[in-house]
C-alpha cells in the first residue's frame, strides 16, 4: 500500500482539501459536543431513546474520522500532531455522548465529564499520590535500575566468565513475572515507598542488562579491526566504537522499561502501602465504587507514563547521532 | 531473550559456578535478613523452640527470606496432592491457559493493528500516540471493572483474564510486526512491482516472511507481559484459581514461604512459556536457525 502514498497525494494538492478537512473536524467535534450537552447525565432526567441517538453519534464520529484522515496528509508539523489530538477529543466526546445516550450508571462507567470534575475536586490528594508513585517510586527506581543495569552490563562484557555464567540468568530473570516478586519485596522492605522503588529497580534491571550487553557486543568486526590498525587503546575503542553502537539498544530497553516502571510501581502498591500512591488510591476507590476518582487516577498515571516515555525519547534523540 | 545460543554446552560450566556461588551466599544472606525480625520476636516473648536470634533466624514463621528447609517444606505443602485444585500444579495450569489464550488474542489484535499501521499513515498518526499511552494505563485498575462489564454480557471464567493479558501484550506485537512488515528488502519490493504482483501477493510472498523474525522477537516479550497480565488479572478480579489468586491469598495471610514458592513456580512458568515460543519459532522459521 505504500505505493499509493506518493508525493502527489501527500501534498494535499486537491483544491479545497484543507477547507473540507476543517469543516469535517468542526462538524464532528461541534456536533458531538452539542449532543453531549443536550443529553441528560445518567441518573438525571428521563433516559433518552438510545437507538435513535446512536445513529447520529456514529455519523458524527465518522465525519470526524474523515476530518482526522484529511488532517494527517502532508509533512507539516500540524499534520504530525493534530490527528492524534483530534482523535482524543473525538473519543472523549463520543464516549460522553454514548454513555449519556445509553444512561450507563456512573457505578459502571463514569462519563468523561464526571471524571474531569473528580480530577478537579480531588486534585490535591491525587497530585500527592502522583508525586509518590511517579517521582519517588517509578523515577527513582528507574534511575537506580538503569545505573545498576549498565554497571552490570559493563562487568559482563569485560569478563567473559560472567557473560557465560551470569547473562543467561539475566535473560531468564527477564522472563519471570515481576509481579510475583512484588509481595515478597514489599514484605521484606516495608510498607513505605522505598519498597516499591526496589520493585521498580528490579523490574528495570534485567531488560537494561540484556539490552546493554547486546548493544556493547554489536560493534562490527570491521570497525574493531580498524581501531586495532589505528593502534587505538582499548579505552578509546570502547568510547568511540562500542558505546555509540550500544546506545540504540540501551534506549530501546529503556523505553520498554519506562512503561514497565510505572506499572510495576502501581502493582507493587497493591500489596501494601502506608496510604499514598496512585495504586493505593485506585484500589481503595474501586472498593468504594468511586469509579470517577479511579479513572481520574488512571488519567494522571497515563499522563505521567506519557511524560516518562517522552523524556526517554527526548534523551534518545539528543544523545543518538542522526542516522542518515 | 536468549543471547547465548551458540555453544550451548560451553556455557554450562560458568552457569553452574555462578549458581553454586549464589547457593553458597544464600545461607548467610538469609541469616542476615532474618536475624533482626528473629531478635524482635524473641524479645516480644513469643513461644519459639530456639534460644538465640541467630538460631531462630531459620525457623521464623514469616521469614524475610525463608531457609532452604522451609522452602522445601513449603514446596511439598503447596504442590501435593498433585491433582488437587488447591495445589499449585493445577493453578499453574490455569494461569498458563489464560496466558496462552491471551497471547493468541494479542497476536490477532497486534497483527491486525500492524497491518493498519503499515497501510495508512493517517491511521498511524491518529492512533499511535494513544496506543503508546494505553500501555501506561494500570491494568490493575481496569481489571475489576472489565470483569464486571464483561460479566454483564455473559463473559466469564478464562476469557476476562485472557483479555486483560492480551491488553498488556498486544502492543509489543503491533510494534514488532509493523517494523517487520516494513523490513522487506526494497530491492525485493521493486522486483515484486516489476513482476506486477498484487499488494496481496506482495504481502503473502514477501512482507509476511520478512516480518516473521520481528514477530517472534516481539512474541517473546509479549508472552512474559501476558503472563504478568493474567497474574495481575487474577489478583484484581474475583478468581477461584490461578497463581495470582494464590499470591493474593498468601499475601493477605502473610505466608511468606508460600509467596516464595509461588514466585518460583511463576519463574518456571515464565521460562517455559518463552521456551515454547522459541520452539514455535524454530518450527515456523527453520531457515533462520543459527
TrEMBL record, chain B:
It comes from the Bacteria. It is found in: Cell membrane. Pfam families: BPD_transp_1 (PF00528). Its main location: membrane. It is a multi-pass membrane protein. The chain crosses the membrane at residues 99-118, 130-152, 158-177, 215-238, 258-280. Keywords: Cell membrane, Membrane, Transmembrane, Transmembrane helix, Transport. InterPro entries: MetI-like, MetI-like_sf. Residues 92-281 form the ABC transmembrane type-1 domain. Belongs to the binding-protein-dependent transport system permease family. This is ABC transporter permease.
